[in-house]
Amino acid sequence: MPVDDVPVPQGPADALAAVVALRRRADQMEDAAVEQAVRAGWGWPQVAEALGVTRQAVHKKHAKRLIAAGATPRRRR
User: What does DSSP assign to residue 11?
Assistant: First the structure.
């Protein structure tokens, strides 16, 4: 299904390569957005709700990277 101003890949190899590139970019965008949210004071529950996943899922995916980057989510009070 064509999207405005986005070229339609020709053939399955190009289409699949485009899917891989989009997934990589989406992962990069998610990483940056989660780090931004955590640095802004969001907790895991808020981030999880915004992403439509569980708190445990977002913690498992992002916690180690954020701790290594010096960004830690606020604790529940």
Answer: S
User: At which residue do the structure tokens 């070229």 appear?
Assistant: 7
Structure tokens at 41: 């004071």
Which residues fall within 8 angstroms of residue 62, CB to CB, at 6 or more apart? 31, 34, 35, 38, 47
Confidence of residue 7 (pLDDT cuts 50, 70, 90): confident
- Specify whether the CB–CB gap between 40 and 74 falls below 8 A: no
For the chain, how far is it from start to end, CA to CA, in angstroms? 47
Q: How confident is the model at residue 8 (pLDDT cuts 50, 70, 90)?
A: confident
The letter for the amino acid at 8 is: V
CA 44 – CA 3 distance, rounded (Å): 34
